[in-house]
Amino acid sequence: MITARLRKAFPAGADSRAFTLDIQFQAGSGVTVLFGPSGSGKTLTLDCIAGFVRPDDGRILLNDALLFDGAARVFLPPQARHCGYVFQNYALFPHMTLRENLEFAAAALRKLERHKRVTEMLERFQLGDVGGRRPHELSGGQKQRGSIARALLARPRLLLLDEPAQGLDAVLRQELYAILREVQQDFPMPALLVTHDLEEALELGSQMHVFREGRIAQSGTPQGILDAPVSADIARQLGIYNLLPAEILALDPGRNSSRLRVGEWEINGVYYPGHLKGDRVTLSVIPSQVRVMAREGAPGANTMRMELRHAVAGPERARLLFADGFRAEMNRADWERISRAKEFAVEIPAAALRLVKG
Fold it and tell me: β-strand 207-212 against 30-35: which pairing, if any?
């Protein structure tokens, strides 16, 4: 278990604004995702935990070991913290071979034990035939696997991963995800994963903290946060929602229903506790929950005519952009059946409409 309470402030400078990291969280075994845009404090959090940055105040406890305590003036150096760190840019020494990089990380071991463990790690991560190459002679995937192998050599109690899939193509990403899942099975320990990629968070994370401007704005499982963002700002940050300003026209708790005005349209929704007729609210809907059809006759319930602006068909899914930035996603085969239509209608199921704070 890692328990962290951190505060670190940076004053405004000539070319930078003031920034304060002020967070508190716990993470157990499994992958805990630190999710958010660049500059929100995710990597700074890892650097504080690793000992590369000294917080102004707070406390960091890893299992039963106190790594930092601002009040007690405890600050263990990085080498005493037993944290494995996988950097975004790999951080392999360019003048050393891959094997030498791993041997450097295992310098505390006796020579024979060091050679044995390094060889085992090279083989484990399918790097046995490139151990004699320098970093510039390795592919991105090989460098990333080497970086993970190096982080695990010292048998860390905590694994820190800073954007580990950055710069990898789709095939190498899936390969990396498989490796990280194996690492979690074979090296049970907490892992903190920094990313701004929602698919990566859903793929790997058991818990997630959404960072926003140095604070944690929402915590929960990745799927739970995806299903119910606490605010429109978080929905925008997740980047996969349509946000619709609406007015509540009617509420019926007995039937768990509501009537809403969205632009020029009236649609049905579920009952929204704590709200009244006439309230203006913001609704969110995920593009994949929208149904797109060729327009034929008058629109039905919860169906609105929309002007298609752009469509991109991938191998399995089609992504559609309509007027006013409304987005939909559908099976490619279904899209191909209607793609030649002159006009389109979009159906939004009532259950798919989520109310979020504006």
Answer: parallel
Q: Is 26 exposed, middle or buried (0-12, 13-18, 19+ CB in 10 A)?
A: middle
Q: Where are the alpha helices (DSSP H) in the chain?
A: 42-50, 98-105, 111-124, 140-153, 170-186, 198-204, 222-227, 232-238, 332-338
- Three-state SS for 241-298 is CEEEEEEEEEEEHHHCEEEEEECCEEEEECCCCCCCCCCEEEEEECHHHCEEEECCCC
- Calpha distance 7→20 (Å, rounded): 7
Note the pLDDT tens digit of each residue in 66-78.
Answer: 999 999 999 999 9
Reference 281, options 300, 302, 299, 267; nearest CA is: 267
pLDDT (0 to 100) of residue 168: 76
The 10s digit of each residue's pLDDT in 1-34 is: 899 999 999 998 888 899 999 999 999 988 999 9
Question: What is the rounded average pLDDT for all residues in the chain?
Answer: 89
> What does the alpha-carbon distance between residue 243 and residue 261 come to, in Å, rounded to a whole number?
14
- CA–CA distance, 79 with 353 (Å, rounded to integer): 50
Q: What would the mean pLDDT of 264-289 be, rounded to a whole number?
A: 91
The sign of the torsion formed by the CA atoms of 266, 343, 318, 34 equals negative
Among 32, 28, 73, smallest CA distance to 55 is for 73
Per the DSSP assignment, residues forming a β-bridge with 356 are 282
Structure tokens at 233: 């700002």
Over residues 183-209, the mean pLDDT reads 90
